[in-house]
């Protein structure tokens, strides 16, 4: 993003001028000034209540923006950093620069920064990229919001977001402002509860909570002004009235009077009788006694949590919905799909998913521009919403892809009827900028019948079907099918036939080249197993490996692949081909084997292959046992074997392990590459991964590259290598050798 001089706020220009007058060198990292540990501990005690509330909101905020590398920073009114919360890799990086708790982060010490400006102006501020004075901060985007609360004395400071400049968004400042406001309100509520006892709240008409008291018979005896405002009930008409007539608190008050229960933080919703405004409240209630311990009535206080509730609702909405169309997004689709599959297993019902891809959308987008393209996507979403039945859920996956979950199916004809209706829906042209354009859609359909596979497999089947629809001429649908004969074969005869296949040489390895984006030469190959079955033909790894794992044959299969790949690599060298690395995928069972390292070592000895020409690929999920993962990878690394993380960005652990694991390559998952030309978020994610990987001296391989445009785009992002059908599909030995 380019920031022109005239776009830079005056307060930033003034700050930079002051930095120049102080003689600061923007090209250096300034020496950090720290307060003493005793001073820091005193400040932490002074801010303890606020920091406790901050932790609660920060955790929710970071979960909502899962996948975005950011940290939240709290400072006091002098710019002293008190606390960090957020991405561990980014936290470690900034701490190495001296930015950590106890550091004085001021304009005088660190130049132009958002926290100092927010404190001086007393309003939310953003400082983006080159707006920072010092260059070491110019790869970051920072957003700061000041706060002020009353404890024993006024407590002031800032809460800030720091992220990479690729993730800059004005929405971050809006969300942070909402969160800081919620923290201030939560602090006030906690302080009120700590400072005021029950009698003070009853007699204090200015309490910021609604107070209602009844006698032992359930008749209202007191209500304060805030209670009148919140409920719309007037004191003159409510006093003496039976609580049973006052919804929604009647049930709780009656329980207090009949069983002397206490309630804490019970969520209730009030609709004000005067204004119709709905309020979300937390109810605290308890019985009241006289000096002899006899029950005299019930006391209830209602805390207005509407602002906090609406802020959380807004954050959740933004996390799970597409900004452009308002539809639920890819993240929400996968969440719903997994939940639905679990329920389907329990109730033995079935549902289908549709994957829609707009035909010729790229041409329209490139011809008329992204603004018109966005308008078209909005119109498509409107048509689909209006057409789909009540038992269908619509999602936008990104780019020009939509998905539909169709629930409660009785037969296949119901599914295909809806698919045909969607095809017909696009027969009517779309009017864009005084032009009429005819577009169509290709639909892939997969039906979930039982617990035979997971959500990723179901989605992949729909994706496969969608591409088949495109192959058949577009503007059509295709239903994924798997024959009963093949299913029975896999379940009943797979184990015996797979063992025979290894013995009878029915298995073979195909190799897919990995291309240097700089030299455009082959620098490696990935070994992929194929089963040349005499009856069913060539069977791919997606059908072999899951059943092999289920039947306990993964170890046998993995050892065969490792031996075969290393032998082939050495054979190529013996025939005069330039030595290149061969990548072998490990299954979770392989990786968890304690004898894995010894097995790899033995295969290298037997095949006489130098270890640097073997690369082991593992997935993120295999690293959940961190101690075992570190020990195993370190031992492989000491052998000289290269290690790659496959499908990077898709697993549970994100970037956390990069600093701990001895790895050489990251393979960016194909799901990020698919929409790289259309989805700005995918571009930012890939760019961030490449930047971080290069910072750790790792090389990056992009998987699933299918077009020249994708390859050029990745090259411009300084991605090191690429792999995919654009270069070559996986090939048998005699065909891959022709590419060397």
Summarize the structure.
It comes from Lysinibacillus composti. This is EAL domain-containing protein. By secondary structure, this protein is an alpha+beta fold.
How does the SSE layout of this entry go?
Layout: H1 10-21, H2 37-46, H3 48-64, E1 70-76, E2 81-86, H4 88-96, H5 107-110, H6 114-121, E3 125-128, E4 140-150, E5 154-164, H7 170-195, H8 198-203, E6 210-215, E7 220-223, H9 225-231, H10 235-238, H11 250-259, E8 263-271, E9 278-289, E10 295-304, H12 306-320, H13 330-347, E11 351-359, H14 361-368, H15 370-387, E12 392-398, E13 401-406, H16 412-425, E14 430-432, E15 435-437, E16 440-448, H17 455-471, E17 477-479, H18 484-503, E18 507-516, E19 522-533, E20 537-539, H19 541-550, H20 554-574, E21 581-585, H21 588-592, H22 596-607, E22 614-619, H23 626-639, E23 642-648, E24 665-668, H24 670-674, H25 680-695, E25 699-702, H26 708-716, E26 721-722, H27 733-736
Parallel strand pairs: 16-17, 19-21, 21-22, 22-23, 23-24, 24-25, 25-26
Antiparallel strand pairs: 1-2, 1-5, 3-4, 4-5, 6-7, 6-10, 8-9, 9-10, 11-13, 11-16, 12-13, 14-15, 18-19, 18-26, 19-20
Helix pairs in contact: 3-7, 7-12, 14-15, 20-22, 22-23
Q: What's the Cα radius of gyration? A: 31 Å
Name given to the CATH homologous superfamily of the largest domain: EAL domain
How is the CATH topology of the largest domain named? TIM Barrel
Structural class: alpha+beta
Mean pLDDT: 84
Gross CATH architecture of the largest domain: Alpha-Beta Barrel
CATH class category name of the largest domain: Alpha Beta
Q: How much strand content do the residues show?
A: 15-25%
- The proportion of residues forming helix, as a percent range, comes to 40-55%
Largest sheet: 8 strands, mixed, barrel
Number of domains: 4
Give the quaternary arrangement of the chains: single chain
Q: Span between N and C termini? A: 41 Å
Point out poorly predicted stretches.
none
Order the strands across the largest sheet as they lie in space: 18-19-21-22-23-24-25-26
